[in-house]
Amino acid sequence: MTSVAEAAVGRVERRLLDGELGLDAHLARHGRLPLLDGSQIIGMARDSGLTGRGGAGFPVWRKLSAVAEAGDGSAVVVANGAEGEPASGKDRALLAYQPNLVLDGLQLVAAATKARAAHLYAPKAALAPLRALLEARRVAGLDRMSVTLQAAPDAFVSGEESAVVSALNGRGAVPADKRIRVIQAGVGGSPTLVQNVETLAHLALIARYGAGWFLSAGTADEPGTFLATISGAVRRPGVVEAGYGVPLGELIAAVGGATMRLQAVLIGGYHGGWVPADPALPVSRQALEPYGASPGAGVLVALPAGACGLGETARIAGYLADQVAGQCGPCINGLPRMAATLADLAARRPRAGLAAEAERLARLVSGRGACHHPDGTARLVLSAMRMFQADVAAHLNGRCLATEGYR
Amino acid sequence: MSDALWYFARGSGVISLVLLTVVVALGIGSRSGKPAFGLPRFAVSLLHRNAALLSVVFVAGHVISLLFDPYAQLRLFDVVLPFVGNYRPVWQGFGTLAFDLLVAIVVTSLLRHRLGARTWRVVHWLAYLCWPVALMHGLGTGSDNGTWWLWTISIACAVAVVAAIGWRLSTGFSRFPARAERQVAPRLRKELEEVR
Amino acid sequence: MKLHVDWTACDGRGVCTELLEEMLVEDDWGFPVARDGQRSPAVPPPLEGAAKQAVDRCPMLALKLIAR
């Protein structure tokens, strides 16, 4: 899963995952972090237009300055590598190949927010090798702020911002109500900055090579590169880096191309949306918006022509229904019902109003939870109902276009 | 005058018990989420609260009248400290205990928006202790114990509360029996573990 | 003013849907749904009193009135 594309093809780039392994190689290639004060770091985050790479895409500098202001020396910063999404592997790859960039980035945000504590929150397996690295960095005098490594439970919602804070507060990785935001009161009640590990790695490169360099990739509105995890019907599933706006075909080509004709691609992961397998389709927020999708955390799943999109969506919806945290009534009741409805549709067990019921449930659960788990699941289901409209009609008549070879 | 105090103390005590019974039954009824006793849910909730506040008024009257009553010989600390009274200390002590519990339940309810739901709920469960203790107090003390009419009232109160609890425990209590229980998934409940 | 539901606390007891039936309906399981489909529905001025009462009477303390 964590194979990394070997060569740059077209607009596919290598910034984050390039270079040899190890601290010496890291220092030889990138050197030490330049000494920057808080306002310089925030200014550079603003000038680069860097956005969060965990899925939500929020401007980094806004969160940084909000926490710096609210924290007043008491802030807590967290590098979030809890990659609960099964189809995503980029955070694991980054922590395995270039953890120094993540740790550099964590030091930068700690400095920018004048933090009192810094945590790296990720699956236990990803953290174990980092213990020795942190020691080596300490000996080399790289880290002004000591970093604690906190194990994240393997669960879909465990990386959600408020779930991260709740986990660090010892109350389990459950999302919290958003009336009070973690940038105001998070870990131990202190203003808290939670940033995805990839976001921090980008910041570490921006600190060395400048905002202008960062802006040289991507589009004017969505600058920089992102890590994409590509799976499904492709030859070498794995992680690829590219600038936003990269054509879908180039991303697929970078993982060896499709193993067979593709009918659709799921973009943005299990909370994402289905888009046509059009090689020219730019992978950017702007270009994907009409499909109700977005690059999100860079997860792409390629669906081959012979596979049923409704079946695949029903499988994912079932997984997501199983992954509810269990706190919010509409989610714990609505998601299993929605998944079961979709499963009936996928398995060609038609009944009157089946398709309308799936859509009704999707709209019913949207916006009614502490986190976006119901919203994201609903988005996936609604996008499948649109993208596979012909399949829905066929299934209601007891036929399947994909498995019967009509696609 | 002192006879009047004694009559008032007895009467207000009985009324308090009846009111507390109504409060408990309505409290259980409001828990169901169904319109209960022919009333809409919010009316059940408001009636529950207002009957409780009214019962506090009668309980206060009951206690104050006894403080001035020459026969009861109630001292100020008997109002809060149970089982140390001069007159039938055990039965009087039940009254003191019920009074303390009632004060705790009412005060936390008035402050519940500040205390938070969890603290409030824990204290509120003490109602299931407060009510039977109050009932026993009424049966065991005073000059009316053993009278047919106090027995009738007490039994009627007990029947009402037992019926409400029976309804609470029955399968038909919930409005939505098929509703999934809200409960945090065990996979998320894991203890925080630092990798050292 | 807007009505905010803390979904981690809401137990669908149905008091708010009665007091604010102009704004809220119940879903298939008795949990409130805003008629306007908003995450935090705006409270029209004539309903502010009812909204305050709903906040006060919510047995789970799951409702809050928020500015914004």
TrEMBL record, chain A:
Ranges where the NADH-ubiquinone oxidoreductase 51kDa subunit iron-sulphur binding domain occurs: 314-395
Entry's Gene Ontology BP terms: cellular respiration
InterPro entries tied to this protein: ComplexI_51kDa_subunit, Nuo51_FMN-bd, Nuo51_FMN-bd_sf, Nuop51_4Fe4S-bd, Nuop51_4Fe4S-bd_sf
Protein name: Uncharacterized protein
Protein family: Belongs to the complex I 51 kDa subunit family.
Keywords: 4Fe-4S, Flavoprotein, FMN, Iron, Iron-sulfur, Metal-binding
UniProt-recorded Gene Ontology molecular function terms: 4 iron, 4 sulfur cluster binding; metal ion binding; NADH dehydrogenase activity
Domain NADH-ubiquinone oxidoreductase 51kDa subunit FMN-binding intervals: 46-203
Cofactor(s) for this UniProt protein: [4Fe-4S] cluster; FMN
Entry keyword Protease: no
Automatic annotation (TrEMBL), chain B:
Subcellular location: Membrane
Keyword hit for Transport: no
Coiled-coil features, chain-numbered ranges: none
Keyword annotations from UniProtKB, A to Z: Membrane, Transmembrane, Transmembrane helix
Transmembrane regions: 6-29, 50-71, 91-111, 123-142, 148-169
GO terms under cellular component: membrane
Domain Ferric oxidoreductase: 12-133
Main location: membrane
Keyword Transcription among UniProt keywords: no
Pfam families associated with the record: Ferric_reduct
Membrane topology: Multi-pass membrane protein
Signal peptide bounds: none
Name used for this protein in its record: Ferric reductase
Organism, as annotated: Paractinoplanes tereljensis
TrEMBL record, chain C:
Protein's UniProt name: Ferredoxin
Lineage of the organism: Bacteria, Bacillati, Actinomycetota, Actinomycetes, Micromonosporales
